[in-house]
Q: What sequence folds into this?
């Protein structure tokens, strides 16, 4: 199938998320779609699959203008998607999942014999063997994903969109997935492949489309593009353009020392230090244990062995209350799920995090609460109607600023920022970086966890690279190129401080 | 020209303020309309005597609804209130009959209510049972226990004095239960709007993960909330027992549904974190006024249920438009 999208625009209220984007995939093609968070990938994908309808532009299938206005339409046009979050029904069987919503019936009764016949064919094409009666929750993630691909074949899909398909797979499963994808390509299918992992894109894909800030920046055959080009086009600036002037502040006293910290099955033997006015970064892929370490430092999860020292004193952090008492603040990676009370005002959000500080005895001091909220939201340059505005009405960047202010109001000396700029626009990013530097100037020790390498390179003093629960390396951030860090993230060999790793590209 | 435009915009602004006020206060406006309509149709309805007796009737459901409101705000539910009511008042009545002073028996009932509440809270917060399942079980357990210890027979003739005064007495012409209802309402209003504990309840119901990460001790506060519900169910039971001068083992059947209905009519969200105690009070009054008014008009009791059900649906649909 040949899918063309011409001049596609889409707005949500005043925000234009796609501006005149052209996109096309040929049959027998594996096409990479990449861009940073908020670049418009997922919106484009949702237009393809009929979840959103575009405001302007045309969609052509095999040269014919087509309307895709609902999920039903996209299925009828033989477009399927395998989401990052798999849509399987864990308590139902393999066969039931495969034919969900597409059951073959005879006289109103599901015809499992006919279904099995079709399933046999699909499984042979995919090269997998599964017992039809097995409950899907008993399968590995890799197999569940195969089942999702199988589901799209039940629907006779000609175009399959894969959204970050390898994010939860083991290396072996990835190899198998790639073999399946190549086989699908041979069968004449078109694949749209969305991933952050450059190596995979260069290994697997035939061509690439790069989006940035809702616009198409490049479409190129993979043979004619280099890794550097891709990164440059994706982020849209030379490294550093986004970041404030680096502050040369000597780190002060030691705030935090972690010794051989281990939580079984999550991470092991983690050791690092954090000083006043120091920013350290944690790089690594999703699931490499970065967030899990932070959860332990903040008393959310327990640890099995190792020691934590705060300001030279050995401490046990067994609750959030304790962590807060020690002066630790934690901006979590999911601000909507864990950071904010969305149906509450900005003032309430700050208040809820500082109930003790903003009350006398057990009665809330409203005046103090309002003035504190006003102070700290001004400090982070929050744009809002007033502090009684609901946080659900704010943009991503401003929501993040609310989360920051609610922690700053607690006067932390150690601040953990997990993905501090995820899903927010470039301007807000810039402001957040400036704020982080201001906090550094004020003597706060900051830990930044991020999947965006550029970000870590731009603001941190030291980067710790994690892979599968282990610290692979400690890199002093002065002459780093992103290739070096990328190499570590891909699980490259261990190196000592400063030694240059061999780039894999 | 300019002046005219300004005029227009200010009048449309005023209109939107009025509209906002109306939409925000739909339950209250509904109550007023209901009272006006009933007042036109029945002479006796608007008399002070009748109004007071509505309040008195509302007091039992009202107390339970306030406790339910606290639970719902924390994104829980308490189905056991009716059984708690029956169990605690049965114990109280038996204590009085066997010679304990009334105040000891009353205190015992309240403490028992708190214990049952704490048990619910423990099942939910530490035992990780879903609130619906946990309180459904305790609802059945305590109903069963009540029937078992009483052999299904009411305990009557508890006498006058304190136990008589709580449900049947009055002070300067206003029935005692009305004082209790108003006092508990004001107390709750203060707790939920002004205290740290109140904010914690809202925070837990609003986003439990975020609450936990703010250092709010979710489990402990959940237990408190169910304890409050249990105490208020016991208090409602004391009033009811006093009113009819007997503890009935089947008392309080399906009172939890009335309480939930009052909360929902008053704008509470069953997912937690949203709702006001004033709304619950209005919800209670709507149900009580409806029952009383329809009675006065001589309509069938069955009709009342149909209308209450309809009001809940309407309340939720209107609420979504806010």
A:
């Amino acid at each position: 199938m040949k899918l063309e999208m011409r001049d596609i625009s889409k707005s949500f209220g005043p925000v234009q998320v796609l501006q005149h984007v052209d996109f096309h995939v040929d049959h027998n093609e594996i096409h990479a779609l990449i861009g940073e968070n908020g670049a418009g990938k997922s919106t484009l994908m949702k237009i393809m699959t009929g979840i959103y309808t575009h405001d302007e532009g045309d969609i052509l299938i095999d040269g014919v203008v087509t309307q895709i206005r609902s999920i039903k339409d996209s299925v009828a046009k033989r477009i399927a998607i395998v989401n990052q979050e798999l849509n399987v029904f864990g308590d139902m069987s393999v066969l039931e999942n495969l034919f969900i919503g597409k059951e073959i019936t005879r006289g109103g009764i599901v015809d499992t014999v006919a279904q099995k016949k079709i399933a046999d064919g699909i499984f042979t094409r995919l090269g997998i063997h599964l017992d039809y009666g097995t409950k899907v929750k008993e399968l590995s993630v890799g197999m569940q994903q195969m089942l999702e691909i199988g589901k799209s074949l039940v629907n006779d899909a000609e175009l399959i969109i894969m959204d970050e398909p390898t994010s939860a797979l083991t290396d072996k499963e990835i190899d198998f997935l790639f073999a399946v994808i190549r086989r699908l390509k041979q069968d004449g299918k078109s694949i749209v492949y969305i991933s952050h992992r450059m190596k995979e894109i260069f290994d697997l894909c035939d061509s690439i489309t790069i989006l940035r800030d809702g616009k198409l920046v490049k479409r190129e055959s993979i043979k004619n593009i280099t890794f550097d080009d891709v990164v440059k086009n994706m982020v849209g600036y030379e490294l550093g353009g986004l970041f404030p002037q680096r502050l040369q502040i000597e780190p002060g006293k030691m705030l935090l020392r972690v010794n051989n910290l281990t939580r079984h099955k999550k991470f092991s033997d983690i050791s690092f230090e954090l000083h006043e006015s120091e920013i350290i970064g944690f790089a690594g892929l999703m699931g490499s244990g970065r967030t899990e370490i932070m959860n332990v430092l903040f008393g959310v999860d327990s640890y099995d062995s190792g020691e934590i020292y705060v300001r030279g004193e050995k401490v046990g952090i067994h609750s959030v209350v304790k962590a807060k008492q020690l002066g630790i603040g934690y901006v979590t990676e999911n601000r909507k799920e864990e950071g904010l009370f969305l149906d509450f005002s900005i003032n309430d959000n700050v208040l809820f995090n500082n109930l003790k500080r903003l009350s006398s005895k057990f009665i809330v001091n409203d005046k103090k609460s309002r003035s504190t909220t006003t102070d700290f939201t001004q400090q982070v340059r929050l744009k809002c109607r007033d502090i009684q505005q609901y946080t659900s009405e704010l943009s991503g960047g401003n929501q993040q600023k609310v989360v920051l202010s609610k922690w700053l109001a607690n006067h932390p000396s150690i601040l953990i920022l997990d993905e501090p700029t995820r899903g927010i626009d470039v301007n807000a990013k810039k402001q957040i970086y400036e704020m982080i530097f201001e906090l550094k100037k004020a003597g706060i020790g900051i830990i930044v966890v991020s999947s965006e390498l550029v970000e870590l390179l731009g603001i941190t003093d030291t980067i710790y690279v994690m892979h599968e629960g282990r610290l692979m390396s400690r890199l002093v951030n002065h002459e780093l190129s992103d290739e070096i860090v990328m190499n570590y993230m891909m699980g490259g060999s261990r190196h000592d401080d400063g030694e240059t790793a061999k780039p894999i590209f | 020209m300019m002046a005219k435009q300004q005029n227009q915009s200010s009048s449309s602004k005023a209109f939107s303020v009025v509209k906002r006020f109306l939409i925000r206060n739909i339950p209250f406006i509904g109550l007023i309309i209901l009272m006006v309509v009933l007042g036109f149709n029945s002479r006796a309805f608007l008399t002070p005597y009748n109004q007071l007796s509505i309040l008195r009737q509302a007091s039992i459901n009202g107390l339970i609804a306030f406790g339910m409101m606290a639970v719902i705000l924390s994104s829980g539910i308490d189905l056991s209130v009716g059984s708690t009511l029956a169990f605690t008042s049965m114990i109280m009545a038996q204590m009085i009959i066997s010679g304990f002073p009334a105040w000891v028996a009353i205190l015992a009932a309240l403490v028992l209510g708190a214990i049952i509440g704490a048990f619910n809270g423990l099942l939910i917060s530490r035992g990780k049972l879903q609130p619906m399942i946990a309180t459904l079980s305790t609802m059945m357990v305590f109903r069963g226990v009540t029937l078992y210890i009483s052999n299904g027979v009411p305990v009557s003739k508890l006498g006058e004095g304190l136990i008589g005064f709580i449900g049947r007495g009055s002070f300067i012409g206003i029935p005692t239960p009305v004082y209790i209802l108003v006092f508990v309402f004001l107390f709750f209003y203060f707790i939920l709007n002004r205290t740290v504990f109140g904010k914690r309840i809202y925070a837990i119901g609003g986003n439990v993960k975020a609450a936990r990460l703010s250092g709010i001790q979710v489990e402990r506060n959940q237990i408190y909330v169910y304890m409050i519900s249990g105490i208020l169910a016991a208090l409602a039971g004391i009033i009811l027992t006093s009113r009819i001068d007997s503890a009935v083992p089947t008392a309080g059947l399906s009172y939890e549904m009335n309480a939930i209905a009052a909360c929902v009519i008053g704008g509470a969200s069953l997912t937690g974190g949203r709702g006001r105690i004033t709304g619950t009070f209005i919800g209670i009054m709507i149900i009580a006024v409806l029952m009383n008014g329809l009675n006065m008009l001589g309509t069938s009791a069955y009709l009342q249920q149909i209308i209450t059900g309809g009001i809940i649906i309407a309340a939720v649909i209107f609420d979504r438009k806010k």
Summary: The mean pLDDT of chain B is 91. Strands of chain B lie at 155-156, 170-171, 174-175, 246-247. Residues 267 and 320 of chain B are 10 Å apart (CA to CA). The interface with chain A takes residues 194-200, 202-203, 206-207, 209-217, 273-274 of chain B (CB under 8 Å).
